Amino acid sequence: MFNGTKWCRGCSRDVPLSGFALDRNRGDGLQPRCRECVAEYSAAHYRRRQAARGKVVREKVDVPSGHKLCRQCGEVKPHSEWHKNASASDGLSTRCKACRAIQGRAGHLKRSYGMTEADRDEMIAAQDGLCCICLKAPAIHVDHCHKTGRVRGVLCFNCNTAIGKLGDDPDAARRVVSYLEGHAWKPTIVAQGVYRQPS
Questions:
Q1: Pick from 120, 73, 121: nearest CA to 101
Q2: What's a single GO MF annotation on this record (predicted)?
């Protein structure tokens, strides 16, 4: 020890006494390595142990102030790219907004339809990427029977909405077809306020 410093056995430099942790078993009451060396040694030892167990070891990444590393995509992004999470130590979600959105869509498909994104993409490919009703617009919305839960196909927004507006009623859909073909239901006036339905 010299002038309030101590030589560190790890990094071979003189370090202020405050840079050493206490160790009552030592003559000077301080550990032989500075806090930085102990932390580095502990981290390296931890990584070796985890690797020996076959576990993935995450390397420490330097992140600038106002940014955070997303462990999902591995990108460092500004805090504006994260949702708030009051229970987290830094007040931010564990995944960035983009990763949460991707996982949210995948989770919705699994929960709602029991299918994966690969299953959906396979259906879209089988439909040549087009809505299986209008055969024009891109297929983006998974359609299912509200009674059985069975997935019927992938539709465009307009066709999916139209089926929903018709209440999934095949008879209503047949009347729409009849109407579009010019066979609209036209009541005949028999007397004032009295109509006769066509047979």
A1: 73
A2: endonuclease activity
Q: Which residue has the tokens 């960035």?
A: 96
Task: Please give the Cα distance from 64 to 82 (Å, whole number).
Answer: 15
The encoded tokens of residue 139 equal: 């297929």
Helices (H), ranges, the chain: 35-52, 97-113, 117-126, 157-165, 170-180
Distance CA 154, CA 123 (A): 7
User: DSSP 3-state assignment of 52?
Assistant: helix
* 121: helix, strand or coil: helix
Cα torsion through 140, 145, 148, 151, rounded to 10: -30
- DSSP secondary structure letters along 19-32: GS-B-TTSTTSB-S
d(CA 138, CA 127): 10
pLDDT tens-digit profile of 56-69?
766 667 778 888 88
Angle between helical axes of 97-113 and 117-126 (0-180°, round to 10): 70
User: Does the pTM of the predicted model rise above 0.70?
Assistant: no
